[in-house]
């Protein structure tokens, strides 16, 4: 935050209002930058300073903003984007806490607006607003419609505070499949072109004070880029109730189901995925438990991936793919390990480069994975020595 931050106190609530040290093409000064913030005072010393440079956006951009039918403007792919590919990098225009008391919300936004550069102000006012003027002023309505939750550092023992960031481009990505001439034709061919099976996700990076948006599955040129507004593992009724806050009803193929039996099946699939880790075997215990079937994790996780495919929940697939790859590693199956590990590398290249690099190293040299083939070796010994006499099945790590 800049050196011109000032207290903002209303009622029993005390915040500090100031600017993030972010510039735009309009430049910046000590009192006006590309991003204004309303923060709890103890958070400020914990913010990184100076901010790291965010990843570079592509030139020309991978997306464009166009009419998205009944939902106003939307974000569309300008070219084919592979699964795991970077779509854009964005920095916030405004950052606000979630618990400003209702009587003071208007004043909070009125205080932020003069601190935002004209370029950022124009971008903010161009965003959608699902709130009528009878309910709240324009700027507050825009923030409530578009804010994306971001994680800011919280002092030890401090009350947990949630913050939302309003972004000029990421906020353009709608939740639902919207109607445009290209998307109508595409939807007729590809019914997965929708939202409760979203095709993009965002990752917040505090060090650079930016979000990066990545493709969760291949996105074709002209497809609308849609992101998550709701807990996608909740039942359809709960998802629709939440989206009613944005004044629309999601009509993607995962919500616009033909009958109650289909709704029940979909809700059951999402509930199964929600509870997966509590009910299904995990990789680490299985890897050394010779009483379990050798394909237990593989069969289990293939079931999860089938549910993910059915419900279009591509953002959940990496952990399951990772466990399948590692299962083949401890079984010593090099070809299948490489097949699944490569999918992890591709999907994580942008979102989780450390994981991607780790798996790329194992693909280059499978034997460098220290548990490589251990389970296969122990199974062979057990098959030869049923009575386990003088058989060493100790764990070497």
UniProtKB/TrEMBL annotation:
Protein name per the record: SET domain-containing protein
Location of the SET domain: 61-230
CDD domains, sorted: SET_SMYD
Pfam families the record matches: SET
Organism: Mycena sanguinolenta
Top-level taxonomic group: Eukaryota
InterPro entries: SET_dom, SET_dom_sf, SET_domain_protein
């Amino acid at each position: 935050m800049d050196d011109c931050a000032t207290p903002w106190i209303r009622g029993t609530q005390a915040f500090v209002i100031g600017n993030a040290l972010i510039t735009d093409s309009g430049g910046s000064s000590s009192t006006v930058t590309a991003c204004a913030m309303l923060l709890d005072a103890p958070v400020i010393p914990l913010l990184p300073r100076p901010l790291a440079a965010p990843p570079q956006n592509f030139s020309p951009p991978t997306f464009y903003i166009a009419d998205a039918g009944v939902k106003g403007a939307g974000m569309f792919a300008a070219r084919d984007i592979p699964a795991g590919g970077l779509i854009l990098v964005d920095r916030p225009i405004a950052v606000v806490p979630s618990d400003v008391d209702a009587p003071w919300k208007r004043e909070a936004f009125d205080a932020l607006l003069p601190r935002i550069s004209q370029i950022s102000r124009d971008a903010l006012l161009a965003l959608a607003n699902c709130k009528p003027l009878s309910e709240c002023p324009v700027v507050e309505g825009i923030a409530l419609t578009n804010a994306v939750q971001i994680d800011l550092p919280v002092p030890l023992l401090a009350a947990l505070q949630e913050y939302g960031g309003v972004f000029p481009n990421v906020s353009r990505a709608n939740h639902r499949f919207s109607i445009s001439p290209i998307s109508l034709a595409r939807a007729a061919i590809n019914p997965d072109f929708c939202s409760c099976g979203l095709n993009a996700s965002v990752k917040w990076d505090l060090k650079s004070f930016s979000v990066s948006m990545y493709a969760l599955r291949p996105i074709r040129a002209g497809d609308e880029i849609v992101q998550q507004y709701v807990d996608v593992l909740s039942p359809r009724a709960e998802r629709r109730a939440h989206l009613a806050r944005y004044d629309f009803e999601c009509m993607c193929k995962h919500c616009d189901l033909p009958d109650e039996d289909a709704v029940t099946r979909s809700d059951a699939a999402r509930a199964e995925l929600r509870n997966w880790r509590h009910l299904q075997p995990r990789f680490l215990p299985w890897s050394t438990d010779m009483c379990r079937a050798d394909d237990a994790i593989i069969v289990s996780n293939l079931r999860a991936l089938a549910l993910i495919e059915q419900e279009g929940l591509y953002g959940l697939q990496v952990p399951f793919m990772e466990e399948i790859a590692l299962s083949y590693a401890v079984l010593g199956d090099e070809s299948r390990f490489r097949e699944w590990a490569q999918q992890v590398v591709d999907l994580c290249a942008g979102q989780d480069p450390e994981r991607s690099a780790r798996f790329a190293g194992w693909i280059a040299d499978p034997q460098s994975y220290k548990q490589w083939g251990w389970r296969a070796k122990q199974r062979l010994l057990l098959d030869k020595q049923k009575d386990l006499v003088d058989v060493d099945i100790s764990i070497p790590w």
